[in-house]
Design brief:
about 400 residues; 18 helices; mainly alpha
Length: about 400
Amino acid sequence: MHHTDDVPASRPRPRLSTLLIEAVVLFCGLRIGLSLLGAFMATQGVPSPCHFEEALVDWQTMPELLRDGPAFPLAGVWERWDACWYMKIATYGYEPGERSVAFFPLFPAAVRLAGTITGLPYPVAGMIVSGAAYVVAIIGLLRLVSDGLGLAVARRTALFLSVFPAAFFLLAPFTESLFLATAVWGLVLARERRWPLAAACAVLAGLTRAQGLLLAIPLAWEAFVAVRETGFRSPRAFWQAGWSAAAVLAPAVAFGGYGLVAHAVTGETPYDAQSLWGGTNFHPPWALVAASVGWIVERGDGMQALNLVAILGAAALLVAGARRMPLTYSLYAWPPLLLIATRIQPTPLTATTRFVLVLFPVFVVAALLTQHRWLQRAWLVISLIFLGVLATMFLQGDFVA
């Protein structure tokens, strides 16, 4: 079945209270499971928070490290890798010479605000921000997908995404939930033609991750469809067209504005900082796949194998679902997926499984293709097994990327 994008499908919209309850139920299940795993791993001699940064990164300042008491199993065990950078930025801002401008400002700003309001340590505040953003993201996802494809598909989409092997990043002090929330709601509001709010979400997405810049592509398609529907036949239509153009430009404005401020404060742009990690080295996708296969064969790297499966599986699902879902979804998912498939940073397909996590159309297609219960159960069992494995590796201090 081919879903047209000319007019977003009109189905009975679920009540917001219903979507909130479903999102909270998913949050509680994921939070309880991860908290129990974290509490157990805290008794197994796992490294202290920010162990890598403390030992090997030349930082002049360190964020608060929750090493002792109940704070360690609650939040300290999740304070690793990128989370340490975000906690450092929340505490000290962007410091010259430390490449921290590669990490975008909205999440650390939200952590600082939450920590100031609650008086809680920033790592705990970071988990609160991520948890709240997860609930907001799932509500938006349920609303977006149910509007065009039905509530049953939307529920499976949210469930499959929430048990994906990298899903623990959604509740750790990382940007995944905040980016997913801002991006999904930007699309929800664009498809509902509420352009000023869509523009606001697009700005927030552009301040959360560099990937937010690519949100302009699906927003541009929605703006084109909206103008094609209404033309410029009335002052209201002209006004709406202006706001839709603003929404399309919003990610670039946020991205560029942050780059200017970052350069003024530290002397570096996000591009400069990324280049020091090899994040600006691009290669043809086939070269990256070949490099990934070679890496797996030579080193027996299981994480690299999972990343290769993730990117090939995501691409296959998007191809299979291209005519089953709105074009907007494909325009949201393909650009970042192709970008992932061109970078070796510092290994082939670094962090691919984590990046695929926020490409919700991949999970929409999975939901569409798993009508039979045995397929749904198989997806859930396999996902949960790998979720447990990757979360355990992360808690042990491994670089899960």
